[in-house]
Write a structure and sequence with these properties.
The complex is a heterodimer of chains A (178) and B (238). Chain A is mostly helical and 178 residues long. Chain A folds into two domains: 3-84, Orthogonal Bundle (Arc Repressor Mutant, subunit A), CATH 1.10.10.10; 96-177. Chain A has helices at 3-11, 18-28, 37-49, 73-84, 96-107, 110-136, 142-177; strands spanning 16-17, 53-59, 66-71. In chain A, strand 2 (53-59) and strand 3 (66-71) form a beta hairpin. In chain A, helix 5 (96-107) packs antiparallel against helix 6. The longest helix of chain A is centred in the last third of the chain and has 36 residues, at 142-177. Chain A starts with a helix and ends with a helix. Chain B has 238 residues and is an alpha/beta fold. Chain B is built from seven helices and ten strands. In chain B, strand 9 (216-221) and strand 10 (224-225) form a beta hairpin. The longest helix of chain B has 18 residues, at 180-197. Classes of the chains: A mainly alpha (178), B alpha/beta (238). The A-B interface holds A 104, 107-108, 111-112, 115-116, 118-119, 121-122, 124-125, 128-129, 131-132, 135-136, 152, 155-156, 159-160, 163 and B 45, 184, 188, 191-192, 208-209, 211-215, 217, 226, 228-230, 232-233, 235-237. The structure holds adenosine-5'-triphosphate and magnesium ion (MG).
């Protein structure tokens, strides 16, 4: 996923200038890093060169001139193609927690690995409590709730792994120290 | 909520609880304290003794050893009939498995604890209706449990646990049978209502996402409490 595609998506609601796009982005995607205006401007220029967006008018309100952009037909096709194709499911193969468990067993022993996992579990659960609070806050917007849900689901996946690992520390210790 | 000394008032506590169904104890010396207004989660693997512990806290089971205190009363020392009276008036319980009376409507189910406590029918039904509405199942007042979805009957069961406005609610896997969105809606409502009422809650679950609604978690393993990780000696690599 690229910011360029996100810009195309946001422009599908109608022509907008860069500042509006930045604001819409930050509001719709509260979990994403807020866009810098310079980044938006550079992306729009690149998209214009590719023929995916075009400037339609320049707004002169108080302050600087603002170029208003719209999707071109090519831009619309590009957006539709992108939206139609599923993102590659991320395999999350690198697991820093597993690395730490193995190294703790090697450096300190089984009991310490167990203790490490218990602490990690507590730390994960603390984060889950924070996100749960965000979710239940009546003032949270639906995008914020969904972002918290996403974080919670991933933390929960880690936590399930931690629970399984806790039951297997003994067996793992035997295997890697034999 | 604090006492004059600034300490948190303890709503419910257990000391060295032991309970056995047969030869091997299912709960082996558990001690805990729940502060007033606190939501405490109890997690642990299947068979670790969560439900047994909760039933002891609720006064449904009488422990073989140790005591359960509700406020300043030692309920584990009370007679069976006194425990069940206390349970009706001061403790709300949501059980893990089938608990609504299938022959009664949702309204009658929720009104039941008040009627058993001696309330007049009209007053009991008015209160029951209010609690059904609070959990957004007011429309089901005349429905009977066999015709309800899992989430609906769970909401009715929670309304029934809260209708006496108990100091303490004990809930065993309140969302166990629900998909994650329905479970979340039930939890959101439960937490909103108990926070408003200042109710103390003990929440048994094997699901970390449910546990995260609590203020604090304790973990059971083979009938014993795991020490909190913060209390474990710093045994890491130094
Ligand atoms: N009515 C019973 N008679 C005999 N043994 C029981 C009874 N209920 C529970 N046990 C045993 O006591 C132990 C603890 O069971 P308990 O139901 O408290 O576990 P739990 O943590 O609630 O499990 P789950 O997550 O599956 O609900 C288990 O070994 C179980 O087999
Ligand atoms: Mg159980």
């Amino acid at each position: 996923m690229s910011n360029a595609h996100v810009m195309l998506g946001l422009l599908s609601r109608g022509q907008q200038h860069g500042y509006d796009l930045k604001r819409a982005h930050d509001e719709q995607f509260p979990a994403a890093r807020p866009l810098a205006y310079g980044q938006v401007y550079a992306t729009l220029q690149r998209l214009e060169k590719q023929g995916l967006v075009e400037p339609v008018t320049v707004e002169r309100v108080d302050g600087p001139d603002r170029t208003v952009y719209a999707l071109t037909d090519a831009g619309r096709t590009e957006l539709a193609d992108w939206l139609d194709s599923p993102e590659p499911p991320s395999p999350y193969v690198s697991n820093p927690l597993a690395v730490k468990v193995t190294l703790t067993i090697l450096a300190a022993g089984e009991q310490e690995a167990h203790t490490y996992l218990r602490r990690q579990r507590a730390a994960h659960l603390d984060r889950m409590r924070d996100y749960t609070r965000t979710k239940t806050e009546p003032s949270s917007s639906l995008p914020q709730v969904l972002a918290a849900d996403y974080a919670l689901a991933h933390l929960d996946a880690d936590l399930r792994w931690i629970d399984t690992a806790l039951q297997r520390v003994g067996a793992l210790t035997k295997e890697i120290t034999s | 909520m604090s006492t004059a000394s600034g300490e948190k008032a303890v709503a419910l506590s257990a000391r060295s609880l032991v309970y056995s169904y047969g030869a091997a104890p299912a709960v082996k010396g558990v001690s805990l304290e729940v502060a007033r207004g606190e939501i405490l989660s109890i997690t642990g693997a299947s068979g670790s003794g969560k439900s047994t512990l909760l039933l002891c806290l609720a006064g449904v089971l009488a422990p073989d050893a140790g005591e359960v205190r509700l406020g300043d009363r030692i309920i584990s020392a009370e007679s069976e009939s006194e425990r069940s009276r206390l349970r009706r008036s001061q403790v709300g319980v949501v059980f893990q498995f089938g608990q609504l009376v299938p022959e009664l409507t949702a309204l009658e189910n929720v009104a039941l604890p008040l009627l058993l406590g001696g309330a007049r029918r009209s007053a009991a039904e008015t209160a029951a209706r209010t609690w059904l509405e609070r959990f957004e199942v007011g429309g089901l007042a005349d429905a009977r449990p066999p015709g309800m979805s899992g989430g609906q009957s769970q909401r009715v069961a929670i309304a029934r646990a809260m209708v006496t406005e108990p100091e303490v609610v004990l809930a065993d896997e309140p969302t166990g049978a629900l998909d994650s969105l329905s479970g979340e809606l039930v939890m959101n409502q439960l937490v909103r209502v108990v926070r408003e009422a200042g109710t103390t809650v003990v929440l048994v679950t094997h699901d970390a996402r449910v546990s995260a609604y609590g203020d604090r978690e304790i973990h059971l393993r083979d009938g014993e409490l795991d020490p909190h990780p913060a209390d474990l000696l710093d045994a890491g690599v130094s």
